[in-house]
Structures are given as C-alpha cells and as structure tokens.
Amino acid sequence: MRPGPLIIAFELILLDTGRASSTNQRRWTYPDWKADTVFKRQDGTGACPLPQEMSVTAPKATPFVPLSQPELDSIVKWLNSSSLGLNLSDPSSSTLAMSDNYINHIEILKPNKTDVTDYLSGSASSVPRFARVVINEGSAKVPGVVQYYVGPLPISDSTTMRPLDYFYNGPNGPKVLYSGGLYDAPRQRAVEAIVTTTMTSIADITLDLTGLAYYGSTDNRTNSVYFVQNPYSTDGTTGVTWLPWRRRAQNPWDQPSDLYVSFDIAGTDPSLYHLRMIVYNLVVYNSTDAFRAAWSAGEITKTPNPTTNDAFLNKARTGTVRDLEDRFAPTVLTIDGNRYRVDRANNYFTYMGWSFYTRFDKDTGIQFYDVRFKGESVLYELSLQDALVQYAGNNPFQAGTAYSDRFYGIGAQAVQPIPGYDCPYHATYLNATFNDGASLRTIQNAVCLFETDIGTPLTRHDVYGNWKQSTKSPKLVVRMIATLGNYDYIWDYGFVVDGSITLDTRASGYVQANYYRADDGGRWGPRIGETISGTMHTHVMNFKLDFDLVDTRNTFVKTDLVVENVTQPWYPERGVFETMRYAVHDVASEAEGRQLNLPPNGQSMYTVVNKDHLNAWGQPRGYRVQPGLSNVYLPSQNSPFLLRSGQHAKQAFAVSRQHDTEPASTAALSGNVPEAPLVEFWNFFADDEALVQEDLVVWANLGMHHYVRAEDLPNTLAAEAHASLMLAPQNWAMRGGENTRDLANAVLYNYTDTNAEGVVVPETNGVDVPGCLALGADDELLGVFEEQ
C-alpha cells in the first residue's frame, strides 16, 4: 500500500512539545512509543525517489486517433482530383483570395457513440473513420464556408464526400454564409487594407485626439493596434465590425483609447469594404470628411489620452518582500511514487478504481470517454463544449462583443504549463496531438496529470473515549491551460477516490478594460486605472455530461425541498406549523428538460439515476449533479449578439436524449452568426422526446459574472475567478453505503487496542510514512487518542 500525496511546507520548524493546559496534561511520557516500528518518527535523511510512470494496458486500442499526416495528405490529394471538380486553390498561396475555393481545415470526424460503444463492448471489431473537411467556397453562387465528411477511410473507390448535414441543424445546414465565416489570411489582408487606408487618412487627427496613429501593421510610425469585434455578422449575409483603438504595447488589452471605428466587411470583394462610422467621445461621425470637418472647426471635445505608463501591467515583483516569503511555498509532492497508471499509446488511464480514455480536440481541448468507477460505467463522455464571454458597456465595441472561444480553438491555444507553478513538481505531462488545417500538430506537455489532496479529510469522526477515525482525501487532477487572447483559462477535471468527479475552471490574465469615462457613473464597471475602468462581462462554460450509469437507460430526477403547513397528532399544542419534505419528480420529457435553473436557497437537487439498478436498500443507483461555485448562465436571454448561437448558455442545466446527430451543443463558426448558427441548441428539444429510462445527456453550465475590480490588475486572481461543479454518487454503491471503506490511507483508533504502556495504537492498514519525509513532534500518531 502507498500513502497519498502530501502538501508539504518546507523549512519545518519543530515546536516545543512540553505544552500543558490547566485541565489536561499532554501525555508525552511513554518511553517506548518510538519502539513501535510503524510509528517511528523518520529522520528525513535522503531525497525522496523521483516518481516513476506506472504503466497499464488499455482493454481496447483507443478509438480516438487523429488523422496521421499520410492520411491528411491522401485526403488533400483526393479532394484536388479533377473528378470532384472542386477547383481548389492552394491555401498557402500569398495571393489566395476570398473569392477562391480552398481547404481551411481537415480533421478526424469524432466517431458516433453507437460505433464506439459497439467497439468497446466487443460487438464490433473497429470504428469507422471519416474526415471532417471545411472548405471555403468563395467562388460559389452563394459564397460560404461548408462542412463535409469524407470517407470511409483510407481513401478508396468507395470513399465519398457529402455535406455534414446530419448534425448541423441550423437554418443553412452545414454552411455558414461567407460574411459570417472565417477570419483567415485572405480576409485579414482585406480588412488590413481598408483599415490602413482609412486610418492613415486621419492619422493627424487621431494623434491629436488620442496620441495614437495607424499607418499599417508593418509601418514604424504605427503606435496603435486594433481588434476585430466578434460577432461580425448576423446571419452570414452582413459583415459589420467595430475596431477599438489601443496603444501598441506588450499588453494592449488595458490601454484603450476613446476612439472606435466601424467597417462594413461583407462579401468576398474587398473593393466593396468601406468605413461605416467613427465614434470619438461617444459622438458619431459618418465619414472621415465629417470627422475632419469637426476637428478642424474645433468642435471635438478631447478626452485624456490612454496612459503611456504601463508599469501597472508589469508582473515583475515590486515592493518589500513579506516576512518569511523568502522561503519556498508549500507544494504538492508525490513522495512515495505515482498511484495512477498511464497507457500513452492509447491515452488510457487508471486511478484508484477510475478508468477512462481521453482524446484531444482542436476546438475544445481534452475530452474524456468511457469513464468507469470500480469497473462500472458512469459517463460515456465528459467534454467542454465552449467558453462564451458576453460584454456590456457604453461604447460600440464593448456593447457588441460576445466571444465564442471555440471559434479560436480552445485546444489549439493550449499552452505548456510551467512546472512547479502551473502544475506540481513530478506531474505527468501529456502531449496534445490533433489535426490543424491540413497538418498533424503536437503541443508538447499540453496536459498535466497529478494526484493531490483535497485539503480536508474525506471522512472523519471522533467519539470521545471510544474511537476516532479519519480518511485521506486524494484525487487525480487532469489539467489543461489555454491562453485565449487576454485571458488564461485553467480547466481541472478531478477524479476523487469516493467516486466523485469535480469540474473546476479558473480565469486569469488581463481584463479587457474599458476607456474610463466619469459620466458612466460605474454602471459598467469601476475605475481601475488612470484612464481605464473595468468592464462588465459574463463567462459561461458549457459541458456535455453523457451519463451511462451502469447502462444507457437513465432518468433525470428533480428533488425539491418543499416547505408546507401541517398538523401532527403528537404536537396538538402546535396546531398548524411549518415543516419540510421532499417532492421527487422525474423530468419526463425534453420540453421540461430544456431549461432547468437553480432555485433560491438551493432547494432543489438534480440527480441522474438508473431505475433498473437498485442498491441494497432498493434505491435507484445514481449520481448527483451538484452545483459548486458560480453556476451562472447568460443573464441576457435576448441579446442580438448571442440570439440563437448562445442557446446552450442560457440555463444552468438542460437534459436531452442522446443522439449521434446531436454530438455538440455548438460549433466553431456559430458565434459569428448569432441569427443563423450551425448548431441551434434548442432544436434538440423540439421533438419533446421522453427522458425516463433513456440514454440521457446533461448539458451543464458554470462560469462567473466578472465584477471587475482594481485587484484584477495586473492579472485577474484565479482564486476568486473560479467556478465549479461536482458529480457525486447518490445511492450508487451496491451495498448501500459510501465508497471509501476499502481505502488503506485511513486511520482508526479503538480504545481497546492498546500497547504495553496503555496507549491506543491506531490501525493504519500498513501504510507507513516514507523515510524521506521528516516529521515533527506533533506529527506522532501515538498519544493522539489520549488527548481528549
């Protein structure tokens, strides 16, 4: 048996052990305590051994394999064959135009659940392989970006190419009309051209009013940058964006000016792109001529320039070092070897009864499949779907900004963690390999695994003078960090030894600050710097929880805590009085399951149960979907910028029947077309299918309303910007109790189990403290029971 991970504070100070109280002398007088080998205090000599990776062999080869480079090359060659008549241009060409047809992206099409479960169960020998192909069709009569699937693979005479319309259920099927499509190299060049021409023509004005000028991204005179607002379309037929102007610096997010410029960027012909309006000091100018005329006439009231002092954004240490801060901070160390096993070839993992496969997705990062606890199925899929951010403010950029981070590729923006800081020392690191464009890409060490202690006992109790017990609380954490523009997101997936699963997301990085205006009165955020204020915004993370509790026949149950007035014969003197009871209700159909929110005071419990499988006490075995910190959803239900594209983020939970035709709640390009998304989430519920004892998917949201504060500079504090959710066993164990009595990392004292000196000797199940760990006087196990 191996002890769990410890959180260690270095520079251990041994305190005086001769303490006494007026009522009870501590019993440190037994000379033979240290003679007990199990409890002998270790001297801490020698370094703890470096943990070695423990291997396991997956029961089946993983069905989640990205396309290899030879497969990608073969698909590209096949797509360029004259027989298909796609008339494709080279996407790497410097002269590539928006009006061309070209391949934007190829990746493995995530296999259907039915195919995967057939394979894992042994009823199928393999999982069919298809590619998802994204093609910019700029020369089409109605230009757009179209999704296809190609297969079966490998390429052969039976391979076909068909529109991927079986799960893109939006009004245009698998197509996004061009103006709401990709912001790739051809479009970027077109936008840069019109922006450079326009801003150069008014550079003297912008220098005077803001201290900023733009002559093009490569011009040495340029001292500013712009961002392209998302979404920049409504349904793909329009193309309008607002550009906020900020000082060019290492961190421009927090150096905004009071200048905003809007362009029409609709269509594939860049000669038709044009200026729409200029806004300065919240005054609208409909042309550069109007702007210049007002400036020349002295009719423009100047506002302060963005500060040139960016020291407030610098994270280099300043100030006097705090007392004892020169010592190494406490850290998580695995001092007795890893307690989880890894099959790198198949991305398969086991830990303390848990087992699961993972895959890595360009759009959303790490995903989990066939999640089992003690051999029994809990989840088929656990995966992030998107991370939305909706802003608000009294200017055209903030008021119209709604980011869908899936558009930028959450997985593609994963970063390599810093050892010992982002992930504990001795963590296991996994590469992230996925298809990007027409290439196979790998991000080194993009995911870390480590075991940690929750920080409190998992169970404990103390019966004075009789017995006491405590159980350690370790869990395996799988962590991914992605930097998406100004924000860094930390996603933790935790697998606890009691059968619980924890989901935690934290945000740090730089806030997207607003230009400070005193007349705003703090309605969109407080002043947090010389020329900046915080900006009201909401983060919402949507997760897919495809439960298969024992099997695929599950039910979603809502248990309300109801307060009612009653009379009871044993309280005749009370008359009618108020008390509580449960009201248990099956969510019977998708119409009811579409929007489930959290009631006031937490007076509802949501569980997924399998009514065909009961525990020893006749209760349906299940899991609770338990809100943690900040289970928020979008506060604005009818914002035009998330009108239909944000439906998955407009409730705490939603429950639908699982279908291979409904694999995701959103899509990468949906965020740019809020009125015509590729996936319209609420359409999943339109047929109002029954949910009782069916294959269910819970779509859960967590996030945070970011009430920006001065403490968000230079970087947002992840301790506060934190949201969580727990999936916890609910009558799950067959024997009808909790799942920790088989854990060896637990201690039990019984008053009858004493040594020759009459001291109670605890049962530690043979798990000893490693010799390399120095212990202090107060770390003794002997004598604790007597200190009552």
Automatic annotation (TrEMBL):
Q: Which SUPFAM superfamilies does this chain map to?
A: Amine oxidase catalytic domain, Amine oxidase N-terminal region
User: Which InterPro entries does this chain map to?
Assistant: Cu_Am_ox_TPQ-bd (IPR049948), Cu_amine_oxidase (IPR000269), Cu_amine_oxidase_C (IPR015798), Cu_amine_oxidase_C_sf (IPR036460), Cu_amine_oxidase_N-reg (IPR016182), Cu_amine_oxidase_N2 (IPR015800), DUF1965 (IPR015328)
Keywords recorded for this protein, A-Z? Copper, Metal-binding, Oxidoreductase, Signal, TPQ
UniProt domain Copper amine oxidase N2-terminal: residue ranges:
92-156
Q: Where is the Copper amine oxidase catalytic domain?
A: 331-733
Cofactor stoichiometry and binding? Contains 1 topaquinone per subunit.
Q: Where is the DUF1965 domain?
A: 256-305
PTM comment: Topaquinone (TPQ) is generated by copper-dependent autoxidation of a specific tyrosyl residue.
Query: Keyword Translocase, does the record have it?
Result: no
- Family membership: Belongs to the copper/topaquinone oxidase family.
What is this protein identified as?
A: Amine oxidase
Q: Which organism is it from?
A: Apiospora rasikravindrae
Lineage of origin: Eukaryota, Fungi, Dikarya, Ascomycota, Pezizomycotina
